[in-house]
């Protein structure tokens, strides 16, 4: 059972079509819609069911939040937003968002590159590095680049974020429970430290302050033959 991060409800601006030109036509704007606390997969499906095909997430998803004693929510909103963006990406909803990555980790964006590419990326140091990273992200993006599906007592992951296919079948109860606890983003202390360290080492989980984001988004079934994705 996922331990949902609470107190992170926010709104998104929504439209009925992917194309920005079409979104400017009368009747295509759906205005601001709430994303309440609770499972992000359910929230994303509710938006999709309401006809949403494009959303704008307010503000900047700050992956430096809560670091080194900085003030703020300890990363709770960032991991909540990332989880929602992943759930919307899984439904092929276009997401307009902005992200700030730690400047001391030039390739930190790679762990996010299975998500719909953002409108702006801030963080990679060096002149033009952010623009080059964002261009690579956009040009190399495709659906189901890093996904997971759940079975009775196990979780399967397929990850191509670093260009090579990595496959995981997780059936250790401690790890399965940890994935459930982090499914919508959760506190780092919600799972055993050794388990969390393993997930972070494989880039399946990402620390943001004192919170953690579970990176692979959920699919009900592989959209293509398993050997393809």
What does this structure look like?
The protein starts with 9 loop residues before the first strand and ends in an 11-residue tail after the last strand. Helices cover 26% and strands 24% of the residues. The protein folds into two domains: 10-140, no CATH class; 146-218, no CATH class. The radius of gyration is 17 Å and the shape is globular. With 229 residues, it is of the alpha/beta class.
Low-confidence stretches: none
Q: Give me the number of helical elements.
A: 6
> Radius of gyration, rounded?
17 Å
Question: In which range does the helix fraction lie?
Answer: 25-40%
| Beta strand % | 15-25%
Please state the average pLDDT score: 90
Briefly summarize what is shown.
The protein has helices spanning 20-23, 40-49, 76-90, 129-140, 173-182, 193-201; strands at 10-15, 29-35, 54-56, 61-62, 94-96, 98-100, 120-122, 146-151, 154-159, 166-170, 186-187, 205-208, 211-214, 217-218. The protein is an alpha/beta fold.
Layout: helices, strands, pairs:
Blueprint: E1 10-15, H1 20-23, E2 29-35, H2 40-49, E3 54-56, E4 61-62, H3 76-90, E5 94-96, E6 98-100, E7 120-122, H4 129-140, E8 146-151, E9 154-159, E10 166-170, H5 173-182, E11 186-187, H6 193-201, E12 205-208, E13 211-214, E14 217-218
Parallel strand pairs: 3-5, 4-6, 6-7, 8-14
Antiparallel strand pairs: 1-2, 1-3, 8-9, 9-10, 11-13, 12-13
Helix pairs in contact: 2-3
């Amino acid at each position: 059972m996922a331990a949902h991060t609470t107190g992170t409800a926010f709104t998104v601006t929504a439209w009925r079509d992917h194309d920005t030109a079409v979104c400017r036509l009368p009747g295509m704007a759906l205005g601001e819609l709430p994303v309440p606390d609770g499972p992000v997969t359910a929230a994303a499906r509710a938006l999709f069911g309401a006809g949403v095909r494009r959303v704008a997430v307010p503000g900047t998803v700050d992956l430096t939040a809560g670091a080194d004693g900085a003030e703020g929510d300890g990363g709770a909103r960032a991991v909540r937003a990332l989880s929602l963006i992943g759930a919307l990406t899984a439904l092929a909803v276009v997401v307009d968002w902005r992200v700030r990555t730690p400047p001391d980790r030039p390739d930190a964006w790679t762990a996010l590159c299975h998500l719909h590419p953002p409108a702006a990326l801030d963080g990679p140091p060096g002149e033009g590095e952010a623009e080059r990273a964002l261009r690579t992200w956009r040009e190399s993006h495709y659906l189901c680049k890093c996904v997971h599906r759940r079975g009775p007592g196990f979780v399967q992951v397929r990850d191509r974020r670093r260009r090579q296919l990595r496959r995981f079948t997780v059936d250790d109860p401690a790890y399965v429970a940890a994935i459930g606890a982090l499914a919508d983003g959760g506190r780092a202390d919600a799972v055993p430290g050794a388990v969390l360290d393993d997930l972070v080492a494989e880039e399946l989980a990402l620390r943001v302050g004192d919170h953690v984001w579970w990176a692979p988004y959920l699919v009900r079934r592989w959209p293509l033959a398993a050997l393809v994705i």
